[in-house]
Amino acid sequence: IGGRPVGYLAWEMVADGRTLKLHKLYLLPEEQGRGLGQAMLRHVFTAASTRGADAVELGVNRRNERALRAYRRAGFEIVDSVCTDIGGGFVMDDHILRRKLDRD
Predict the structure, then answer these.
(1) Longest Cα pair distance anywhere in the chain, in angstroms?
(2) Which helix or strand (DSSP H or E) is residue 63 part of?
């Protein structure tokens, strides 16, 4: 915004060729709540559709209620929950979310 980076995202197509995996979507806290995250998600949906994907998937911490609300608002549903040991006594305690894409 005004030449200042306020967020970023990273994704990849999964080997099945039908799913786009959203790895990162970050937005500075002071920029949240202005519709920018939803605009970033629309960009991801467009990228997925143009590459022939049927769905977008992501993982989000189970306790990140703000992110969960935003993803639900964008049409994502919880399809699984995982707890992954990442070493050093830490775990990633995530919900796996999926949004099917409309096929015209």
Answers:
(1) 47
(2) none
Token reading at 47: 């990228």
Strand partners, 22: 11, 58
Rounded Cα–Cα distance for residues 60 and 1 (Å): 26
- Taking alpha carbons only, the member of 50, 27, 29, 24 closest to residue 39 is 27
12-32: per-residue pLDDT in tens?
999 888 999 999 999 999 999
Q: How many residues are recorded in the chain?
A: 104
End-to-end CA distance of the chain: 33
Q: What is the reported pLDDT for 17?
A: 83
Give yes or no for a contact between 11 and 23, defined as CB atoms under 8 angstroms apart: yes
* Ranges of the chain whose pLDDT falls below 50: none
CA distance linking residue 44 with residue 13, whole number of Å: 11
DSSP, collapsed to helix, strand or coil, labels residue 46 as helix
The rounded radius of gyration (Å) of the Cα atoms in the chain is: 14
